[in-house]
Design brief:
The structure is a single chain. This protein is an all-alpha fold and 320 residues long. 71% of the residues lie in helices and 2% in strands. It has ten helices and two strands.
Amino acid sequence: MSTKWVRRIALINVIVNVIIVLTGGAVRLTDSGMGCASWPNCTPETFFPTPAMGIHSAIEWSNRLFGGVVTVVALAAFIAALLRRPRRKSLVWLTFSVGLGVIVQALIGAVTVGTVLSPYMVSVHFLVSMAVLAVAYAAWVRAGEPDGEARALAAPAVVWLWRSIAAVTLVTLTAGTVVTGAGPRAGDANAPRLAIDEAAAAQAHADLACLLIGLSVGLVFAAFAAKVGPRTRRAAIVLVVVEAAQGLIGLVQYLTDLPVALVAAHMLGAALLWLAVLAVGTSLRHRLPRPLEAATVIEVTPTADDEEDDAEEPVAASAT
């Protein structure tokens, strides 16, 4: 399979793993989390939801169906990596890991339903989605790279600053799930809530977001001061813009009592923010083409017959 098609399928793998975050959010935001009270069946009696079960069952079932789409795409990406010539072991393992992560997500979803949307399981469900998305993104990047050695494009201090940003991003995303676990958008009226102060949790989440923006702005200045490549500078600027938009959405949704549209936009923003962080990381190094193997030259001593043939066919010899 050609490199172009392998990378296209890898990109689709990234996209569907972003969309599944949104469909899962739609389940929670419409109070459809227990629309199907069992797994993998919608109910113990029926595999599919029935019209009599209402819209919540249809929304929950649609999310499960899209999970099937994500599984199929992950399988396609893995097969494409196997068929690629030359085959890359790292790409095969990355696509295999995405498929494994999708299966783990399905099991986590089953446990989440079984615990009536425990906020701890909902948090784990989201964070594993971010992990799968990161691996899918890494596979997409790897599918478009040459096979040679990877070299750093920035000073170690810049790289460590990015690593700090990645770590703070993960902590901020985790804090966001804590706010969700304490807030009113539980996915079902009977879902348990975290016994913590929602306002305090939201403030801690906002403080981490401010720290993240500050570090990212520092990364922009560091990128220009260290004269790193334009790709890294652009990626750092995009990261700050995404963070600013995400922070604005978060502030407005908090002040307006969590309207569904803004909460959904905030969930999409979380996935895009994570991708923006990863994009900065990949811009900090460059993979070189694999060196060509030295050609082996074999000297052949012409025989008397060869010399005679060359003399008889001068036109053919000159053409070759």
